[in-house]
Design brief:
Two copies of one chain form a homodimer. The first copy, chain A, has 409 residues and is α+β, with helices and mostly antiparallel strands. Chain A is built from nine helices and 20 strands.
């Protein structure tokens, strides 16, 4: 018996080492183009073990690096072949889901010409998609699809342009019954991102289409606009009406904090939310209620945001509980017991509190706060995304968990 | 008197030489960031004399070139400074309007990290905007704005995905009166572009907003979808729902012709339009008529396209005159007298024929055909964009000229 146990233990260690070896030696045979590649581009590639492989043509270059690497720490140096191309594979598996990245070519920063660009870190960067085990919930399926509309709404906040850009998701049945009205969720991106993030990187529209098709969420409108509005006009601003159109107002917030993982409810200490509050509450909400068939009252209006957008949500909703009844903070801090105490009528006015983050962020804080709110009688939900960090797979999953809770009156 | 004339002549020659010198030596003082730059980026820059200046950081690079140059012929080599940056100015003035371009860095092709990307030549490329003397007609103004919506419409043509992407412009008053119905223009991009081109590069929405505000065009719906559908799925396809979302079907058309200037009505001899015809006539039009408040009949439905999109318009409208009554070919050939003769009931069914091109293309062909159509009693409009080539300024102006003619019943 003892011998058997020892043998089992040895076998277990051997199996463990085998797994380690497999992890360090990605299978070469199942690399395939990332789903975010530009048309016809074979690279970058990803495989079933979550490794990423890059291939860049730059015959006279001295050095080519990719900003992605093992667990996101450091980058991956590519190696030059005789034909002048550079190839390299991440040292280890990547987290599932979407990652921003860029190239360093001879000391210059460029995007990978093989893949599409996504607005993050106040610029359009390269993106790669590591296939996730749960990608079905944001897959494009043969179900009724809602629409994502670009609207230009009048804004006096930015003096130099007359309008700002928002994207509005309307659920699949929106055009069927002209008498039907819908709740609205205002959904904000993170620092350095813009109003494209939630549908372009986040697939918010497909997440909702799939939930609605499965009758798991009430159909509601989602409004996504640019939230870094405290900085005035940037140099070289461009008009709305184009990709990155909201770049008219995309100046780098000089006093905005960095895109670091959320640090509890005080993650962005220097971010001044007042500008965005004005745009959202005084300009955008009246425009949406005037131009879409909304249920234009507090019980049917919510706000959620990721990272810096969570900070904005925290600040704006607590100041405007006559406007919002649903609050979602995704990797953007928590609604704390002190927040409840300090906010008159919180318990009566707030219907949903949802806080989430990735397991590689600060799940302990999220979970502890969940219990603390429970103890003072505030019904709330905490969600921790498994094996993800401060990235979009956390936020896709968070929306998927949060949406079924919203507007269930 | 004779002396005076001679002096005048000398002065004239001197002035002429002075102008030449000015042309070759762009004023340095009024360079400013291109309107298409990414947020906060100072380069590329443009000046009032239509020169473009580029600035790239790549300290260890051996060679940096920009694909744009004098009159579009050849590129511009950048020169390295001691700080590791590379700078260069075009040898001459550029044509007004939008231009695609890319960098060559040590033999590799990259986008300029300073500017936004635009889908052309089957990839997202860098874009620069040379301010045009007539840019007011596509400027963002304080007028009522229509919306650009992304719709996912069911398509059986592409077996591997259930839906395709289209963008739909609805005019400013679309949501005001739920009983009002609108004509529809199906508006196609050129080879290597996609369904983003007309609103992103072309500002079709702003052109219409401004025309409608001035009461110069009847409000109508514009539908823009991906027209290179004869090629099946590309490797590494991605789902709709993201930028370049229609890239699901963006495979490079292996048998599509090059993006050369239009060559009369036979510009794309190898392009097989049948696939797109199926998508447009059998799938997209029924979807639009079912989901938007259209005037769903032949007198209120038109089709226009630029370059390859003009070829598609030519082929599809002449085969489907029970579906379309308005035809616009922008740098995409002409409706010839032979076309009229060979198409039963052309004269009775077609209400508008509009053909255009840039003055640097083949204006003689456009103008001669205009007269030939007049002579056989086919009312038609020809438009030649001054001092532009096979580029978007030609097509912006063409839409601006064509839109007031449409649906004037």
């Amino acid at each position: 018996m003892k011998t058997k146990l020892i043998l089992l233990a040895v076998a277990s260690v051997a199996a463990s080492q085998l797994c380690m070896a497999q992890t360090n030696q990605p299978m070469m045979k199942d690399f395939k183009p990332s789903s975010l590649n530009q048309p016809g581009q074979q690279y970058p590639q990803v495989n079933s073990q979550r490794y990423a492989r890059f291939h860049i043509v730059a015959p006279q270059a001295q050095s080519v690096r990719v900003s992605l690497g093992l667990g996101g720490r450091g980058g991956t140096a590519l190696t030059k072949a005789e034909d002048g191309s550079w190839t390299g594979t991440t040292e280890g598996p990547m987290d599932e889901g979407f990652h921003y990245y860029h190239l360093s070519v001879d000391g210059g920063t460029f995007n990978d010409p093989g893949t599409l660009n996504f607005y993050g870190s106040t610029r359009w960067e390269s993106g790669i998609e590591i296939p996730a085990h749960d990608q079905d919930f944001y897959a494009l399926k043969d179900v009724p699809h809602g629409q994502v509309q670009m609207v230009l709404f009048p804004s006096k906040f930015t003096n130099t342009i007359p309008v700002r850009t928002a994207f509005v998701y309307t659920p699949p049945d929106y055009d069927k019954d002209p008498a039907k009205r819908y709740p609205v969720l205002y959904l904000q991106h993170g620092w350095g991102e813009n109003e494209y993030a939630w549908w372009n990187q986040g697939h918010a529209n497909l997440i909702m289409d799939n939930l609605i098709a499965e009758n798991k969420a009430r159909p509601f409108i989602i409004v996504m606009t640019y939230g870094m509005t405290n900085e005035g006009m940037r140099p070289g601003g461009r008009r709305p009406g184009g990709l990155g159109g909201a770049a008219t107002t995309n100046a780098v917030a000089a006093n905005a904090a960095s895109n670091a993982p959320a640090r509890g409810s005080g993650g962005f200490p220097n971010f001044n939310v007042a500008g965005f509050e004005t745009v959202l509450v005084d300009e955008l909400i009246p425009y949406i209620d005037a131009n879409f068939r909304t249920l234009a009252d507090q019980p049917h209006r919510g706000m959620a945001g990721l990272s810096m957008g969570g900070m904005e949500t925290h600040s704006i909703t607590l100041k405007h509980l006559d406007t919002f009844s649903h609050i979602g903070l995704l990797s953007g801090g928590v609604i704390s017991p002190a927040d409840v105490t300090n906010t008159p009528s919180f318990k009566e006015k707030v219907k949903v509190v949802f806080c989430s983050c990735g397991s590689r962020e600060n799940p302990g804080n999220i979970n502890a706060n969940h219990e603390a709110l429970d103890q003072i009688g505030i019904k709330n939900t905490a969600y921790v995304s498994p094996d993800t960090a401060h990235e979009f797979q956390t936020w896709r999953r968070s929306l998927h968990e949060m949406a079924p809770l919203l507007f269930q009156d």
